[in-house]
């Protein structure tokens, strides 16, 4: 598996650490209520198809949003988490 | 009063020559990490250029001039080696890294073949030219690898990894040499 770090370029996946679903970028407001926070912290979809994950590129320190497909294993895009808009 | 003796990171371990390859330690002094504050990259680059003739490097690039080298070292950070940093007060965070790293040069015909056994990046000259640098892994270590010549690479890892770095590189040099001897090359 190859992932493209938006900073360094095309790299082997051993250079990356998987974090989890990119919904973590959408932190609810502090007063959003327990349901929103429960969902944010604990509830994840298990999609069959397109998904967005957060990966960390260990050597350069970039957080990367990776768009990939869980069925075909195709990686369709990467972006810096600091610039990603949902 | 105890006399303290300064030792380099690879003291007692290097230099080593195996076949066509030599591994030697570099001890640039001082080494400074330069991390420009938000929006100050241009100003830092201008200040560096007027003082040392070196711009702040783009990702995956390095530059050298008159014994000083500046190497991109990750997002928003570069290592300046072999020259004192100019005054960058208010523009960048500077951290003295003079004794923080183990820095070695692998030189000789086949250097990229030895590194190919350890590094998951294509370091062949067609892709990775003089002055190109990569933040990547060497074995299981985070490393900064820069091509400094036709057949030479400068490799930087954390100082505590010096023994492992020399061990990994020596093993790759030995196995490459054994394979080439066996094949009569």
Topology:
The complex is a heterodimer of chains A (86) and B (185).
Chain A: E1 2-5, E2 9-12, E3 16-21, H1 34-42, E4 50-57, E5 62-69, E6 75-80
Antiparallel strand pairs in A: 1-2, 3-4, 4-5, 5-6
Chain B: E1 16-18, E2 21-26, E3 31-36, H1 41-52, E4 62-65, E5 68-72, E6 78-81, E7 92-96, E8 101-107, H2 111-116, E9 133-138, E10 141-149, E11 152-158, H3 162-182
Antiparallel strand pairs in B: 1-2, 2-8, 3-6, 3-7, 4-5, 5-6, 8-11, 9-10, 10-11
Give a brief outline of the structure.
Chain A is mainly beta. Helices cover 10% and strands 42% of the residues of chain A. Chain A has one helix and six strands.
Write a structural description.
The complex is a heterodimer of chains A (86) and B (185). By secondary structure, chain A is mainly beta. Chain A has a single domain, classed as Folate-binding fold. Chain A is built from 1 helix and 6 strands; from the N terminus they run βββαβββ. Chain A has one helix at residues 34-42; strands spanning 2-5, 9-12, 16-21, 50-57, 62-69, 75-80. Chain B is α+β, with helices and mostly antiparallel strands and 185 residues long. Chain B has 2 domains: 16-27 and 100-182, Probable tRNA modification gtpase trme, domain 1 (Gyrase A, domain 2, 2-Layer Sandwich), CATH 3.30.1360; 31-96. In chain B, 21% of the residues lie in helices and 34% in strands. The radius of gyration of chain B is 17 Å and the shape is globular. Classes of the chains: A mainly beta (86), B alpha+beta (185).
């Amino acid at each position: 598996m190859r992932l493209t770090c938006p900073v360094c370029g095309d790299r082997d996946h051993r250079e990356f650490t998987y974090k989890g679903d990119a919904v973590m970028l959408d932190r609810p407001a502090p007063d959003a209520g327990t349901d929103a926070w429960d969902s944010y912290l604990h509830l994840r979809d298990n999609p069959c198809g397109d998904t967005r994950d957060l990966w960390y590129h260990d050597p350069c320190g970039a957080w990367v949003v990776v768009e990939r497909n869980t069925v075909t294993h195709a990686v369709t895009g990467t972006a810096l988490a600091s610039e990603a808009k949902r | 009063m105890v006399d303290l003796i300064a030792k380099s990171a690879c003291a007692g371990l290097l230099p080593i020559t195996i076949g066509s390859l030599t591994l030697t330690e570099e001890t640039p002094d001082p080494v400074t990490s330069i991390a420009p504050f938000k929006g100050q990259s241009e100003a830092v680059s201008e200040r560096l250029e007027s003082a040392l003739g070196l711009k702040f490097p783009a990702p995956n690039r390095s530059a050298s001039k008159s014994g000083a080298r500046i190497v991109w070292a990750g997002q928003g950070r570069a290592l300046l080696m072999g020259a004192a940093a100019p005054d960058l007060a208010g523009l960048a965070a500077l951290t003295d890294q003079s004794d923080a790293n183990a820095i070695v040069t692998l030189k000789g015909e086949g250097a990229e073949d030895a590194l190919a056994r350890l590094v998951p990046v294509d370091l062949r000259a067609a892709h990775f030219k003089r002055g190109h640098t990569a933040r990547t892994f060497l074995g299981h270590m985070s490393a900064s690898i820069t091509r400094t010549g036709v057949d030479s690479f400068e490799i930087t890892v954390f100082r505590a990894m010096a023994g492992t770095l020399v061990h990994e590189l020596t093993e790759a040099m030995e196995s490459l040499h054994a394979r080439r001897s066996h094949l009569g090359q």
